[in-house]
Write a structure and sequence with these properties.
globular; 7 helices; transposition; about 0% strand; transposase activity; about 100 residues; mainly alpha
Length: about 100
């Protein structure tokens, strides 16, 4: 599952005023360095939003396994395989 598209789907389920904070939160999830840290951040995000915005948490949780699948590959490939967007994927390898 593509993190870029999932982020857009999650944000679309939030009011505009809540989107910038949630976007930073989701971005921070992807900046973690280990699967354990990512899982903790993922859980924190869903717990933060599930009470007030259950559809947001549901949207993220339904693809949990697929979103974490990039950890099945060597770390040097993570940036390019977290997204199906060819531009992001290509430039991710250049960065």
């Amino acid at each position: 599952r593509c993190w870029v598209h999932k982020t857009a789907n999650v944000l679309n389920r939030l009011p505009k005023s809540s989107q910038p904070k949630a976007k930073r939160f989701l971005h921070d999830i992807l900046q973690t360095e280990t699967k354990v840290d990512t899982e903790k951040a993922f859980d924190t995000f869903t717990k933060t939003y599930e009470a007030k915005y259950p559809k947001v948490a549901e949207c993220l949780l339904k693809d949990h396994e697929e979103l974490m699948s990039f950890y099945d590959f060597p770390a040097k490939h993570w940036q390019s395989i977290r997204t199906t967007n060819p531009i992001e994927s290509t430039f991710g390898t250049i960065r």
